[in-house]
Design a protein that fits this description.
mainly alpha, AhpD-like, 6 helices, about 65% helix, globular
Amino acid sequence: MSETKAPSRAQQLMGDFAPKLAQLTDDVLFGDVWARPELSPRDRSLITVAALIANGNTEQLPAHLERARENGISEAELAEVMTHLAFYVGWPRAISAIRVAKEVFKK
């Protein structure tokens, strides 16, 4: 009897609507890009969190803040990223990110 693999987060979020995008997310983004040795998972998390904040993409920020903590980035370091970014990407984007982070970190 073969085990059925639990659906990935991408499959859960979009697999019923956009199965190819879910597959690409699993196989290419997380299966290849995030696994490349040229940058550590910690560095990739810092870059991803900064990019999401810079672009105002707070919907995906909670999952990536959690992943950043799993990859060894402290809450204090993430708060410092947001403070630093306020001067480069704008105060409103940094404040929005801080509001999201406060919700994520109180769990």
